[in-house]
Amino acid sequence: MDEKTRQDLLKLFEGKLNQAMRLYLETCSRCGVCTEACHVYASMPQAKYIAAYRAEIVRRIYKKYFKSQGRFWPSLGQSKDLTEMALEELYEAAYSCTGCRRCMVYCPFGIDTQMIMSIAKLLLVGAHAEPEILTMLADTSIAKGESLEIFREGFLAGIKRLEAEVVAKWQSQAGDTVIPVDKQGADLLYVALAGAHSIIPAAAVFNAARENWTLSFFEAVNFGAFVGDPTRTKLILERIVGEAKRLGVKEVCICECGTAFRVMKQLSGPQPFQVSSITQVHARYIREGRIKLDPSKNPEPLTYHDPCQIARNAGVIDEPRYILQHLASDYRELAPEPIYNWCCGGGGGLVALGEETLDFRMKSSRVKAEQVRKTGAKTLCTACENCHTQLSDLNQHYQLGLEVKFLSSMVAEALVP
Ligand code: SF4
Ligand code: SF4
Q1: For residues 263 and 285, is the Cβ–Cβ distance under 8 A?
Q2: What is the pLDDT of residue 306?
Q3: Residues 115, 112: Cα–Cα separation, whole Å
Q4: CA 82 distance to own-chain centroid
């Protein structure tokens, strides 16, 4: 690596060094409590999959360039040069971590390995050594925000086709517009994923609740966050913030995408609208008597997987359970409790990398498959697209014999007319 590249990367590193990050980098006592907390290590016990080991690679670079001990006595400070080889180690560490933060809830100091891995990901982006496909997908999302007019007609035509499906199945009570788009004065902006499965059931529930809603032009998923690029993350986020402000909505409701919800909730800053997950909105509709569900539609044993970015990392834990009380007659909790729930093994961009990561995702999530199998459930539902894909792959790989469903689709299917 030439000196100019190294200096550029170190500038990126330095930009991440706020007070919390310095604390995480300087505090680890190597107690090892986080070792078994990581689903990757618990499923494949190798030192490189220990949370503290991953962080140590970043920590040693930090010591080398940002602490005097590492600069003057590198061997004493256990410091590490930022080289091509170090970048390879950072890649291995960052892209075998799903950013689930289960290790953090076990660590006595609350060290956030996901935050430390965000340095690793940023250095990889700076060195153009990140998974290229994630950056390409992020750039496609940004381009859509910059030239909406090109996409507009095609998008609206696609939505018209979906409307017919909603009417055929749920008899819309919403009036003329079954899936409103670009509606000035709507109360709620719904940000879906690209795909009918994320739009049709949601439309059925919004209309049943007589919500004054509108569908976003933009898809919720934020590939900038997956690849750990703050600039792209912000640009993707700002498309939705801009749309919400233009339409004057009071609430932005994010579909079943854990990362999109957490990014919007925690990074959009103070805004004139509140940010909710679709799970929170559905729980509210039930509580307010705006929709009613029929639990007899789901007599089989059912369990729920808490998406890490929605439950442990954003606190949406009670709402899905409240919905499930109204939705299923034999609900079975996973053990351990939600805050310690095993990650599905597909976060952090791993599912987005598809076949390339499939073998690793299956092997590193053995503990997840066992956790689900123990419930004896016949249906496994969740509220995140990434988790749904990963759990479906696990279901097949470990022959769990389950049906994997989206919670929001189950709500739509159980609507009492
Ligand atoms: S954030 Fe999750 S995947 Fe990453 S080291 Fe911690 S427990 Fe493992
Ligand atoms: S639990 Fe915390 S302090 Fe202990 S080794 Fe892991 S990261 Fe370090």
Answers
A1: no
A2: 98
A3: 5
A4: 30
Residues 348-404 pLDDT 10s: 999 999 999 999 999 999 999 999 999 999 999 999 999 999 999 999 999 999 999
How far away, in angstroms, is 117 Cα from ligand 1 center? 9
Q: Is the CB of 343 under 6 A from ligand 1?
A: yes
Written out in words, the top-level CATH class of the domain with range 134-287 is alpha beta
Q: How far is CA 226 from CA 137, 229, 353, 383, in A?
A: 10, 8, 10, 18
Domain boundaries, the chain: 3-130, 134-287, 295-413
Q: How much is the pLDDT for 351?
A: 96
Our answer on whether the CB atom of 97 is closer than 6 Å to any ligand 1 atom is yes
Contacts of 87 (CB under 8 A, 6+ apart): 1, 123, 124, 127, 129
In angstroms, rounded to a whole number, what is the distance separating the alpha carbons of residues 263 and 313? Answer: 11
CA distance 69 to 64: 8
User: In 10 A of CB 340, how many CB atoms?
Assistant: 14
Closest atom, ligand 1, to C-alpha of 308? 2
Q: Is 240 in the pocket of ligand 2 (CB under 6 A)?
A: no
So what's the architecture of 295-413 in CATH?
Answer: 3-Layer(aba) Sandwich (3.40)
Mean pLDDT to the nearest integer, 232-256: 96
pLDDT digits (tens, 9 = 90+) for 75-104: 545 889 999 999 999 999 999 999 999 999
β-pair type (379-382, 302-305)? parallel
Q: From atom 4 of ligand 1, which residue's Cα is the shortest distance away?
A: 97
For residue 343, what are its two tokens? 């990650």
265: tokens are: 């909730």
Identify the H or E element spanning 381: strand 379-382
> pTM of this prediction?
0.94
Q: What is the pLDDT of residue 175?
A: 64
Judge whether 134-287 and 295-413 match in fold.
Answer: yes
